[in-house]
Write a structure and sequence with these properties.
Largest sheet: 6 strands, antiparallel
Structural class: alpha+beta
Strand order of the largest sheet: 6-11-7-8-9-10
Helix content: 25-40%
Pfam families: SAWADEE
GO molecular function: chromatin binding
Oligomer: single chain
Radius of gyration: 21 Å
CATH topology of one domain: SH3 type barrels
Organism: Oryza barthii
Order of helices and strands: HHHHHHEEEEHEEEEEEEH
Protein name: SAWADEE domain-containing protein
Length: 294
């Protein structure tokens, strides 16, 4: 198992090959979109590293496979949800969606102190304590070893540090006991970020704090970032074609990324309510117009 070395600057970036991506997608379909266990993920990483296509190149680490599998898992579910929604009624046709996205973006407010206070650190600490007692909230934790964020499989124990801060012994999803860590709850544990669905791009605005998949020279992991700019584009059969300029918090590097590499913070959920309400209102108006025309 283990963890890859910290990223260095310069040189070619790490990328999965098309064959590797196809194999991971095939595996997920075989598992009915379930998350593979640790031994299967490790065998994939070992096989990719030993392949002829990677001769003389940077090897593949198990945690890179885990990070890449997770977006696929959510992406397939989101795609199926989108297809079912389109089949169930009008209002999500591409040519109509583009105009609604522009209109909805104008009415989506930036995150305010009131909304952020709902997810204050003290609330997270209480939620973690409840989770230790059998709660159902999903969390992510920031690894002390590499500064990347991972889904939490379980909180195994807790203690107070010498400074009096609450710490939890974390088991990361897809990893074994050798990768468990003591994590500071106040600064490195939070409610799980939400993978962005293609219909939600209008809810991602400049200034937003996000979790973003960064593909570096030696590793490809999820790091905190913030959105600098958003370039809205018309959607097509492949889904969202918008592009976002982001700045990673850990190294101040900037990159233009597609929506599929980004995860929203729960603090922006209220925007989706506004977006969905606007969509429902527009769909109702279109239905009335269609009935009048008919």
């Amino acid at each position: 198992m283990g963890r890859p070395p910290t990223p260095s600057t310069g040189g070619p970036g790490f990328r999965f090959t098309q064959e590797e991506v196809a194999e991971m997608e095939s595996l997920l379909r075989h598992l009915n979109n379930g998350i593979p266990d640790g031994s299967l993920i490790q065998s994939l990483a070992d096989r990719f590293t030993a392949s002829a296509a990677r001769a003389g190149k940077v090897g593949v680490w198990s945690k890179q496979v885990i990070a890449r599998v997770s977006p696929f898992w959510w992406g397939i579910r989101s795609l199926m949800s989108l297809i079912l929604t389109r089949r169930s009624g009008p209002g999500l046709v591409n040519r109509k969606y583009s105009q609604r996205s522009r209109n909805s973006t104008k009415m989506l407010p930036a995150a305010s102190g009131d909304h952020k206070s709902a997810f204050a650190r003290s609330s997270v600490q209480k939620s973690v304590k409840n989770s230790l007692e059998g709660g159902q909230l999903e969390f992510e934790a920031k690894s002390v070893r590499d500064g990347a964020w991972y889904d939490v499989a379980a909180f195994l124990s807790h203690r107070l540090s010498q400074s009096g801060e609450l710490e939890v012994w974390v088991r990361f999803s897809g990893f074994g006991a050798r990768d468990d860590e003591w994590i500071d709850v106040r600064t490195c544990v939070r409610q799980r970020s939400h993978p962005c669905v293609s219909t939600e791009c209008a809810a991602v605005l400049p200034g937003d704090q996000i979790l973003c998949f960064q593909e570096g020279k030696h590793q490809a992991l999820y790091f905190d970032a913030h959105v600098l700019d958003a370039q809205k584009r018309r959607h097509d059969a492949r889904g969202c074609r918008c592009r976002f300029l982001v700045c990673y918090d850990h190294d101040d590097s900037e990159e233009i990324v597609p929506l599929r590499k980004m995860c929203r913070r729960p603090e922006t959920d209220y925007r989706l309510e506004i977006l969905h309400a606007a969509g429902a209102a527009n769909a109702a108006k279109e239905a009335v117009v269609d009935s009048v025309i008919a």
